[in-house]
Amino acid sequence: MIYPTLMIDRFFDNPDEIVKFANKLDYTIDDGKGIYPGKRSQPLHSLNYSLFDYINKKILRLHYPDFKVFKNLNYEALTHFQLIKYEDVEYHITNSKYPGIGWIHKDPNLITAIVYLTKKNSNSGTSIWKRKLEGIDTTIDCDSVKIPYYSGKSVNENSYKDSLNQTIDCYTETCYSKSIYNSYISFDASEFHSANFDMQPREERLTLISFITKLDSPYTPVTEMQKT
């Protein structure tokens, strides 16, 4: 881990305008890959580059508050709005052992940042996890059940939940972020993490999610802290 976990309130000055923009977009599934639940918008840089750059520079400024350092940063990012409906994650919500917990995973980038954009839904946030045993992530082939389910295919409910629970059994939750409207969490993408879902039928979970994929910076925050 070289980037800290950060949580703040009131990320956007006017979140209602951001939601209004997001609600005008088209959302599509990930071409049957089943990597994530629900649907995402097209990448934000292709829809509104000014907003894309504004958001990601806000994210980076949290990690690099010194303006002399910040103004010389070069980055690449992939930013989407993501819309998840109850039926996309129903097996997680109705899972009696670990209600609402999504699949625990890492992301193949540097920093993952999430802004919660659904009002009146504060328990569909994000958890950070650590392995209970060093070097052992899980003995379950998660993709063999996760990908078909997230792709909308028919999956045996009991088998799905059994595999999910066996996976979660391998981890301990270390941090939990509630999905307060317009709140923000970011973390090192190498951290184990999961989405959480607390929705009723016909409810949705809207987030903005940004993956910082490349960053040309003179230092990384956690590494710098460890020098003291």
Q: Average pLDDT value?
A: 93
Largest sheet: 6 strands, antiparallel
Strand arrangement, largest sheet?
1-7-4-9-3-2
- Work out the radius of gyration: 18 Å
- Assign a percent range to the helix content: 25-40%
* Helix-strand sequence: EHEHHHEHEEHHEEEEH
Q: Distance N terminus to C terminus?
A: 17 Å
Count of distinct strands? 9
Total tally of structural domains: 1
Spans of at least 5 consecutive residues whose pLDDT stays below 50 are none
Structural class: alpha+beta
Per DSSP, what share of the residues sits in E-state strands of 2 or more residues?
Answer: 25-35%
Q: Figure out the total of helices.
A: 8
Give your account of this protein's structure.
There is one protein chain. This protein has 228 residues and is of the alpha+beta class. It has one domain. It contains eight helices and nine strands. The strands form two sheets. It has a six-stranded antiparallel β-sheet, with helices on one face. The mean pLDDT is 93.
